[in-house]
Amino acid sequence: SAKARLALAARASVVANATFQTTHARAAIEAAAHPARFCGYWLSAAKRVRLARVARRVNDASDADIDVAASQQEPGRLPAGWRRLGAERPVEAIVRDICTGLGLKN
Questions:
Q1: pLDDT tens-digit series, residues 53-65
Q2: Measured between alpha carbons, how far is residue 75 from residues 16, 17, 72, 78, 94 in Å?
Q3: If pLDDT is split at 50, 70 and 90, which confidence band does 82 have?
C-alpha cells in the first residue's frame, strides 16, 4: 500500500497482518517491501485450533468468521523470505521467535 511504502521510505518498520493465502499474495507483499528487508512469518495451527480461536473472538479487528477460517488452507512450501512458526504455543513463545528472527531483543 502507499502508506506502507511511505513508512518504509522513512526507514520505519511495517507490519502487514493478513493471511496471504495465495502464492500471489505472498509474492505481492514481499515485493511491496522492496528494497527494504522482508521477513514473512506464517503462523501455523491445526484447523480445529484456528476455528476455536475465531469462535472466541469478540470485538476483533479481523473480518474473518468461522466460514472464512474453515476455508483457509495451510500452504505447502513457503518462499525463502518466509518462516513457518507453530502457533499452538503461548503467544510469548511466538513473539520470542519473531524477535529473535528479526535480531531484536525481547
A1: 999 988 888 878 8
A2: 18, 17, 9, 7, 19
A3: very high
